[in-house]
Amino acid sequence: MQQYLYLIPAMPLIGFLLLITGGAQFPRYVTAMIGAGSICVSAIIAITMSAQFLLYPPLEGAYHQQLWHWFNIGKLHADIGLHMDAMSLVFVCIITFIGALIHIYSIAFMEHDRDYARFFASMNLFVCSMLLLVMADNLVLLYLGWEGVGLCSFLLIGFWYESEANCMAARKAFVITRIGDTAMIIGLFLLFRELGTLNIREILALAPQHFATGNTTVTWIALLLLAGGMGKSAQLPLQTWLPDAMAGPSPVSALIHAATMVTAGVYLIARMHTIFELSPVTMHLTAIIGALTLLMAGCSAMVQTDIKRILAYSTISQIGYMFLALGVGAWSAAIFHFFTHAFFKALLFLAAGAVIETLHHEHNIFKMGGLRKDMPLIFLTFTIGAAALAAVPFVTAGFFSKDEILWFAWSAQGGHPLLWVTGLLGAFITAFYSTRLILVVFWGERQTTPGKLPSGAMNIPLVVLAIFSIGAGWIHLPHLEEVLPATVLKPAHPEEIIFQSIAILSTSLGIMTGYMLYYLYPHTIRGWKESEGLMAVRNFFYAGWKFDQLYDVLFVRPFVFITQVNRNDVTDKLYTGIANIHLQLNRFLSVSQNGSLRWYVAGVLIGILFIITLQILR
Amino acid sequence: MAPISAHAVLIVAAILFVLGLAGVLTRKNIIFMLISIEIMLNAAGLAFIAAGSRWQQPDGQIMYLFILAMAAAEVSVALAMVLQIHHQHKTLDVEDLRELKD
Prior knowledge:
The structure holds 2 protein chains of 2 kinds. Chain A is mainly α. Chain A has a domain at 569-617. Chain A is 73% helix and 4% strand. Chain A is built from 26 helices and 2 strands. In chain A, strands 1-2 form a two-stranded antiparallel sheet. In chain A, α13 packs parallel to α18 and α18 runs parallel beside α21 (496-520). The longest helix of chain A has 32 residues, at 164-195. Chain A is globular and about 110 Å long. The mean pLDDT of chain A is 87. Chain B is built from 3 helices and no strands. Chain B has helices at residues 6-26, 30-55, 59-89. Chain B is elongated. Chain B starts with 5 loop residues before the first helix and ends in a 13-residue tail after the last helix. The model of chain B has no long low-confidence stretch (mean pLDDT 88). The chains are: A mainly alpha, B mainly alpha. At the A-B interface, α26 of A face α1 of B.
């Protein structure tokens, strides 16, 4: 079976090549067949392979395929080699399966778009890059996938390039993630200098022998890799690009900015877990960043009015949970939360896309309202997604994964009660804004008359994802313990059931609060809006804790100032100086070129005299 | 006939050359400038002849024949151009003929 490993990323690549070369000529149904078909084939192969993997686990715990040597420079041997162990398996299945569903949804969603082929080409390239990222057996290939997904994210955020705001959002996403990418590549250089290899398995084997725990070098490497992960996964302080990235089409938000690409940072950290374990400082930092991010993004999500921005902030917040889990050493819990989150967040984005489409591109939730009866299927699936996001106990997938993280945030070796409290507060906020979203969008007065309801191709993915948003919680991810170390618990810790009860309580409280404020007593909110202090807090949250303004003051303005000072280009002065000297000489000599024949004769004479004098004097 | 010293002839040639040169530099009329150039050429020719006679070699006279032929060719071309210039500009004053500038 493992000789077919290459087919999984190859299918989307072929699809991309076909669409990018001949896409404009194909009729629409051919484009859709190629675009969605390639991912579906990929998904079928991936699922068959997973079944094989689970039924007959390979001896060394992973499928491996060496395709060819990429390049050899000195000691650096980079191969195109694919590696699929239990963790890659989870990511590959999610990427191909959810990718296929989103592609099917896009067939209908993008139906009337002019650049149908370009959309599917970019999406296919994205899936290919993402698969390379999670299947790479060395960090160079991983980095290729890493940059590939960044590029596709840029292309797809700016998909509707005629509006300037979309292009700015694309640029912002590209530049901010590039900060993280730069840190990451420096980390890779350091890693290569220290260990002499970039093969992931060799690194994981060599690192514990080479570095002592808490070694400065390994801490630097871990910090740089963490920075890379923070950029891609939109964690504090590099989170500002994700809300703006919602400028792209909804399927793009679902696939790239919710289910897959933004969790690349989680994958990277989990993949390099040995390096992180050798640096406890970085682990603590990861947990703290995760906790702060989940709280900050949760607060922002509470007050947003754009349906997609709410979901974007909630994505940042949920990835914060994953970072928190990684930071306390609960590796499997982080992967599990990624797994469940991918389903319900993709579902939420797709359902939101359907709502927006039906309401003639209305993004403001306060202009929706009362959609419960108009679009029952979307209401149902959206509610399931929101319930999973809010971690409604026992019936939803989100509950199981989030509950596990909360429990480990206290009781794991790297855990701390403060982390747990933050996580719990985050859970309360999540439940609150999920309830708010549902109540405002689907209950209340109808504000906008819905247009044509979405067709079957859009409904099927919603239903499938809704089923998984409920069912995925009971799936026990197999064989992860062979890849990721087990979570070490503190010697003395309270029972899990206590934490579970408290988590349930906090979720219920969040839902209750949302229900009271947005359904039973809506005038309370109106009362709050009178108060200046509360409005200031609300605006602060609404602007994403003013990070954009902060960066504007810290980086953008100084940069613009420097460029203004340097408008005449200081370094260019030297070169313009050289040019000016020659211009002056030219002007000086062109005086002699006056067209007077007698001057020329005199010039010749002087020249001859000069040469003769030289000859005589020699 | 007593041989004339080469020294004296060279002095005459130098005087002729300087006269011609002065003519080229001071005259405004192209035809006079051409005549001055001819004088300079003849000065050079005279110097060759003197040198040939001084060393009893035929080379000096051969060089003079070359100069003669060259001067004839030059004058024919130059006079043709003078005709054209006169035809187009109605003047032969070099101070007015400054089109080569720039």
